[in-house]
Amino acid sequence: xxxxxxxxxxxxxxxxxxxxxxxxxxxxxxxxxxxxxxxxxxxxxxxxxxxxxxxxxxxxxxxxxxxxxxxxxxxxxxxxxxxxxxxxxxxxxxxxxxxxxxxxxxxxxxxxxxxxxxxxxxxxxxxxxxxxxxxxxxxxxxxxxxxxxxxxxxxxxxxxxxxxxxxxxxxxxxxxxxxxxxxxxxxxxxxxxxxxxxxxxxxxxxxxxxxxxxxxxxxxxxxxxxxxxxxxxxxxxxxxxxxxxxxxxxxxxxxxxxxxxx
Length: 262
What we know:
The chain is of the alpha/beta class and 262 residues long. The chain has eight helices and nine strands. A seven-stranded parallel beta sheet has the order 3-2-1-4-5-6-7, sandwiched between helices. Strands 8-9 form a two-stranded parallel sheet. Residues 1-6 have low confidence and may be disordered.
């Protein structure tokens, strides 16, 4: 992938990734390590193969000095568990984001790319509406509420791209995704498309605060990608079409009946 020709940032800028030990953060760190960017990796736990600075981001501290001379912060730290307690969401998502935002302001970071979630708008899912970014926030569950609160905090920063990410599982292969519940499958985001969205976000022109739906090319997707295509030039490379889903269902049903007949 190439950075956009009109990028405000050079292809050797300094990028700090929070949550760098997690599933998405470590994938991104490995990907960007092949570029000319200078990377600073930050997480509360170390990584066996990546040079991660360790700190508890929910508490202000000396880790904030790492933001000095940083051009772009990709903020992926926090919990994505859907069954966490209100206290955990406040500590790991809201307090963490507030401190990252404070560090960005203190050290004049130019851009924040925030790993938000489609669950910020998940309350619309059963309405039949196309869930576009211009609708008012309608969070689904405590996790969605925590991400919505983070977006509200970040909205006053001069340059934020809030990527409302779909479902990006650890075992992110098509066969496993096809077998997932429809609710997750329709929000699927492949690793490659996630990396593309972040890299394009690093390169994009300043739009102020810009929330964007990000999924792969999935049939029956409630979350249009028109805005991401327009703002970022996002072109999802991985797809789940109706034929693939139907064939999986038929094959799965047939194999189930065959096992039952034994």
